[in-house]
Write a structure and sequence with these properties.
single chain; alpha+beta
Length: 118
């Protein structure tokens, strides 16, 4: 089963007031989802975000955003450039592929030589 991991692609310190504690220590982070399996590593184009107050450690959900926070969020969202969606195969995949090709080639060779009568 493939494991999913969120990789931080952009972090920003915000000077807006926290809606919970009214302190100015907010941190905005954008994440991109990566999937890791035994045969492949896939980078998806799915980007998520999170705003956390570093003083009271509370997550600021979009329902509680002020107009200022929303404006700053839209600005940073335009600046985020995620990696392209891609698929990379692991060395285990290539080893299994070569083994399969060798088995098929050996089977064809034995069949063409006529040592096995069908």
């Amino acid at each position: 089963m493939a494991k999913e991991k969120l990789i931080a692609i952009k972090e920003a310190e915000l000077t807006n007031n926290c809606p919970e504690c009214f302190n100015q220590e907010l941190k905005l982070t954008f994440y991109q989802k990566h999937r890791y399996g035994k045969l492949f590593h896939r980078t998806t184009n799915e980007v998520t975000n999170q705003i956390v107050c570093r003083k009271c450690s509370s997550m600021i959900y979009p329902v509680k955003w002020t107009d200022d926070i929303e404006r700053i969020f839209n600005y940073y969202q335009k600046m985020v450039q995620p990696e392209k969606s891609s698929l990379k195969f692991t060395s285990l995949f290539y080893i299994l592929l070569l083994l399969l090709i060798a088995l098929i080639a050996g089977g064809v060779y034995v069949f063409l030589e006529g040592t096995i009568q069908l």
